[in-house]
Amino acid sequence: MSTFETFNADTGCLSFQGELTIYEANAASENLCRAFSTGELRNVDLAGVTELDTAGLQILLLARRLCTPAGEPVALVNHSETVREVLGLVGLEPSR
């Protein structure tokens, strides 16, 4: 199952659903950058992520480095169990 993203400019939330792997990394990265370029991105919701590999992890690390126009970091929220497991394997704690 491929991943798909939805961005809600009203809430500033980009939601990832499905797999976030090398096969989806290019599209996911483009959609993350597109959401960021609106100036409205505040959160990346990970509740729907069902598979995560190192390419997907790189997308999440990129998201963690982004800041809102107010200078606050974009938050990774609602980590699925899959995301928590991968972050644990690489010694990272979920943000917020």
From TrEMBL:
Lineage: Bacteria, Pseudomonadati, Pseudomonadota, Gammaproteobacteria, Pseudomonadales
A Pfam family it matches: STAS_2
Domain (STAS): residue spans on this chain: 14-96
Protein's recorded name: STAS domain-containing protein
Matches recorded under PROSITE patterns: STAS (PS50801)
